[in-house]
Amino acid sequence: MDARVTFTTGPDAPKSFKYLMAAGQALKEGPLPTVTQELVALRVSQINGCAVCIDMHTKEATAAGESAVRVHLVAGWREATVFTEAERAALELAEEGTRVADAAEGISDAVWARAAAHHDEEQLTALVILVSFMNMVNRLNVLTRQPAGDYEPGQYQ
Length: 157
Known about the structure:
InterPro entries: AhpD-like, AhpD_core, CMD-like. By secondary structure, this protein is mostly helical.
């Protein structure tokens, strides 16, 4: 598969892409644990069918020391026993924040309360921005048919 456009070439693409990657880097340096970030990014990408981001965040999670079992079980996290309550709350928030068309209220009060029980306000803010960022990046990649499979951990740092 060939990409419809590339984000690293052309007169305007490099500047825009640079700013997007800077936003992603700022999130990585934020208050959420790296593992939580990668699990959330992976789950959002699975829901949106973004192969590029699934490739990236699977590899980044593994490079950060995440086990293959946990990475493989992200799609079925509700039934899996390998995630902490804080991770489960973050994954639940990520799902509701991604499936906004399925739930008019976005993130329900109950889901927000579970996330707030495990994350402080700064972490919640970072989590919401991460979910929003991942949804945007997923759409960019899906709409332009970016091919997946050759991402190297740390490639955009």
